[in-house]
Design a protein that fits this description.
The chain is of the alpha+beta class. The protein has two domains: 7-106, Beta Polymerase, domain 2 (2-Layer Sandwich); 120-185, 2-Layer Sandwich (Beta Polymerase, domain 3). 28% of the residues lie in helices and 26% in strands. It has helices at 9-23, 34-37, 67-77, 112-120, 123-129, 169-176, and strands at 7-8, 27-33, 42-43, 45-52, 54-56, 62-66, 86-87, 91-95, 101-106, 143-146, 149-153, 159-160. The strands form four sheets. It has a five-stranded mixed beta sheet, sandwiched between helices. The chain has a three-stranded antiparallel beta sheet with strand order 10-11-12, with no helix packed on it. Strands 1-3 form a two-stranded antiparallel ribbon. A hairpin with a 5-residue loop joins strand 11 (149-153) and strand 12 (159-160).
Amino acid sequence: MSEGIKLPFKIVATNAKRIADALVSSCHSLVIVGSVRRCTQQCGDIELLAVTKKGADLFGNENGWPLIDDAIEVMIGSKMISKAIKDGPRQKQFELPIAIKLDLFIVPEDEWAVALALRTGPKEYSRALVTERNRGGLLKNGCVVRHGKVWRKNIDGDPTGEPLPVESEVDFLDRYCGGYVLPGHRRFEFNPNKRG
């Protein structure tokens, strides 16, 4: 989420697609999220969510090297993006020539569905997805979201047992958060008097 400069959707979406196209072959899954996915009129950044592929040795054995790192180096060399501002294993951030930032969020495949819903936003809607209904949010009572998964919670509010099933973003929203809402229609205003 960006607080600074905002650009028209069409400019940001065009750049987001160009960047996604440059990264897609190094990913099992890749999607544009955030304000671009919600098609907001003015966007302050580009956010991508990815499940990356790992490199393989001559015998086809995965060697652990994320292929996305090679794609990023090519993009830096071609001046499509700057050197990384943040360069962690789960989040990378870059300056773009159009004066906004690119945030790349990397998750394991089993966290994809929940991460897609949360990273699409907006911020208050994402917050509601991890807040139980009896506390004014959208999440089914008795559940907790941790590490990209939904769990039953114990009396202390911590995850207990095995993660609950989540097949897709639609499944997560339908099963645990009151129903799927199209990205462009996702809004939420916390009301402490409204509890479910």
